[in-house]
Specification:
- This protein is α/β, with parallel strands linked by helices.
- Helix content is 42%, strand content 15%.
- It contains 10 helices and 7 strands.
- Strands 1-3-2-4-5-6-7 form a 7-stranded mixed β-sheet, sandwiched between helices.
């Protein structure tokens, strides 16, 4: 069994095609605020497996989260599904947001034979768009401050600075949220990821990239993060030949769940 916690939402009696969801920073699989709580209606036809990355949610503590370890956990879960199927057929749909998008891309590139489709919600693959001015500016900012400044703050201080400091509402500082923030503070920087894109372009299954339009985001958030996220999403979609879905807002699956869930049903159907 994998070392991470997986929540299963399934109204099909075990007959639905599996879909694995991997979350971003500050959150966990079933979280309504930043995670995939709004995707629960998809359980009417699919077996949803919501993975808590190490150090997050109900998964065990770890000294440092790592996208390569996350990818290994995704592969382990895919292997368990394959073994449980008996005939080793099928595979699973993969959905990843942000940091989780990097993890599912790494996993899919290693074992495309165990994947049915790939959905990337604003994937943090900065290497794919490193020459874009917005991405280059973001990378200069984060490299200048990491790791000393964030690690000198408490999780509550970092949560407030990362939300209120750029014009976003501060979520409730519950123990589960603060644990997720602390894990985010000490995880391996996502800009170190080097994702092989050619295996994903050559894969036989479809890929969907989902990105917000960011026009209603607070100005600082849009300038410091949003423009780079849009550039990454566009670069990844172009590099792997994916369909691109743009929706209003800056957290597509929580702010526009109807549109995102409809797109997932279309892709999976």
């Amino acid at each position: 069994m994998t070392a991470i916690h997986v929540t299963t939402w399934d109204e099909t009696g075990g007959e639905g095609v599996p879909a694995i969801f991997v979350h971003n920073i500050f959150t966990w699989g079933t979280d309504d605020t930043y995670g995939f709580g709004a995707q629960r209606p998809l359980a009417d036809r699919y077996r949803m497996l919501l993975m808590d990355r190490r150090g997050y949610g109900r998964s065990p503590d770890t000294e440092r989260s790592d996208f390569e370890t996350d990818a290994e956990d995704v592969l382990g879960l895919l292997g368990e599904l394959r073994d449980a199927s008996g005939d080793h057929s099928g595979g699973a749909h993969l959905v990843g947001h942000g940091y989780g998008g990097v993890a599912v891309m790494l996993a899919a590139a290693q074992r495309p034979d165990m994947v049915r489709s790939l959905t990337l919600i604003q994937p943090s693959v900065y290497d794919a768009a490193a020459e874009d001015p917005a991405v280059a500016a973001l990378l200069r900012r984060v490299r200048d401050v990491a790791p000393g400044v964030p690690l000198s703050m408490t999780a509550a201080e970092f949560l407030r600075a990362s939300t209120e400091g750029i014009g976003l509402p501060v979520p409730e500082a519950s123990p589960q949220r603060l644990r997720a923030v602390a894990a985010s503070m000490r995880e391996r920087p996502v800009w170190e990821a080097r994702v092989p894109l050619e295996p994903l372009r050559a894969a036989p299954w479809p890929t969907l990239v989902i990105c917000g339009t960011w026009e209603d985001a607070p100005e600082l958030y849009r300038t410091y993060v949003g423009e780079a996220q849009i550039a990454c999403a566009e670069a990844v979609a172009d590099a792997v030949g994916a369909r691109m879905l743009r929706v209003p807002g800056f957290y597509p699956h929580t702010q526009q769940p109807v549109a995102v869930n409809a797109a997932l049903r279309e892709l999976w159907g």
